[in-house]
Structures are given as structure tokens and as C-alpha cells.
Amino acid sequence: MLQQIKETAEWIKQHTAMRPLTAIVLGTGLGRLAQEIEIVEAFPYQDIPNFPVSTVEGHSGKLIFGRLGGKDVMALQGRFHFYEGYNMKQVTFPIRVMYELGIQNLFVSNAAGGMNPDFEIGDLMLITDHINFMPEHPLHGPNFPTGPRFPDMHEAYDHQFLDMARAIAKEKGIRTVEGVYLATQGPTFETPAEYKMYHIFGADAVGMSTVPEVIVAHHCGIRVFGVSIITDLGVEGKIVEVSHEEVQKAADAVQPLMAEIFREMVKRI
Length: 269
Ligand code: HPA
Known about the structure:
Elements: H1 2-15, E1 22-26, E2 38-44, E3 62-68, E4 71-77, H2 88-91, H3 93-100, E5 105-114, E6 124-132, H4 159-172, E7 176-183, H5 192-201, E8 205-207, H6 211-219, E9 223-233, H7 244-268
Parallel strand pairs: 1-4, 1-5, 5-9, 6-7, 7-8
Antiparallel strand pairs: 2-3, 3-4, 5-8, 6-9
Helix pairs in contact: 1-3, 4-7
The structure holds hypoxanthine.
């Protein structure tokens, strides 16, 4: 595994001279943020040695190097989900490769169902914490030398990044909400009883990604910032049928606002 990570990182280093400190993971329906990046280099996943290949609709699968907010960034356009059949080592492989490439900051985004009754469809939720409800742990197995065997998780989402995002949203008049993201394995959306249970657990939003990536990044000492786009509501009395297309549509509408926050943050780091 470590060998593969180093091999992949080496291949990328040979194919680009860029060494960004910040990486962005673009979630479901959020690939258009990539258009805001002045792209210098884009590698389709299938061209990168050892990289898994993304299968889900709305993920075109490219590793991008470019400039955003006047700074160098790399971006994963399309991520790997557990529900697609990948194991957690594969799901988090790109994060380990990006760590090997020298990133210090990771911005993650996703589409999620809101369970907090104050949320509305199209809200941007700054992720303050998470609940790992996935059936497999990304750090299962021999410990990676990037961090301790028993990693502390009391601040998985960097509080300085959160403060920065709050300030930017205020300055720009962008409505944001905040909350805890819970990750399920999917691919089913939740039953009303499940939404209710997750809310009782203490979660404000639920989705099928992000948490494994954040755990691995945190174990590597990478500072993390996360945003969920609330694409549907799992709030009692407001639950309606949800489809992948609707999730995409709702995500599409808010992409520019998320892009604005990300761009401004990159500029200020
Ligand atoms: N549940 C799980 N994943 C999701 C949802 C949801 O309601 N919306 C977008 N991704």
C-alpha cells in the first residue's frame, strides 16, 4: 500500500511541477467548481497509476492542478464511495497520495440530507464535527506512520478555518448554517425512521462520503475544512421523495456560493 502511494505520488510529481499546499475534494454535483479553477494540468483518474476509477453519475473523475484565488490548488473532481464497492483503503487512497505530494490543507464538499429543522434546501452547512457511521474504518489494520495508532479526534475540522469561513460568509452576505455530518454507507437514502434516529444521535446532516477522507487527512496532520450542501430534507413532516437528479439540481444551484467561500479561503490561507 505504502509502496503504491509513493509510486503514484512519484508519477504525479514527474507530470507536473506544481506543488500546491491546498487540496479540494469536489462532491456529488459540485464538479463545476472546477470551472472556477484556472486549470494548468488535469489527469483523468484512469491515466494515474494505482488510482481507482470513479463510476457514479456526476463525477467525471479527474485530478486537477491549477490556480484559485491566486494560489496553487489541486482538486479531486469526483471521489470514491464505499457504496460503489471500493474498500476504505481505496476510498482514501487519493488523500494519502495528496499528503505524499505535500498538501497541508484539505477542503471537502458533499451533498447531504438535512435533519435539523432550521435547515432549508440549498443551505450551505459548515461541518463542525462528524459521526462515523460507516461499516469499515479507514485506519483499520497496521498503523500508517503518518500519525498515532489512536488518533485524537476532538478537532477534526479546524476551528480557524471555520472562523475564516464564518467571516467570509458574513462579509459576502452568504447564508450558512452549521452542524454535524453523519456518514452512512449508502446507497439507499434514509427512511423517515433513520433520519429521525440520526438526528437523535446528534447529526444535522447525513451523506455517504467525506468522513473516511477526513479521518485519514486528520491522521496525517492535514487541516480540514468541510461544507455540506443541503440538497433534501429528512425533517419530520417535510420529508419528500429524494432522487439523485434532485440532489444534483439542488447542488448545482448553490455551487457558486460554495465556490466563493472556497476561493476566498484559499486566498487568505
Ligand atoms: N441521505 C444520504 N445521502 C445524501 C442525502 C440524503 O438524504 N442527500 C444527499 N446525499
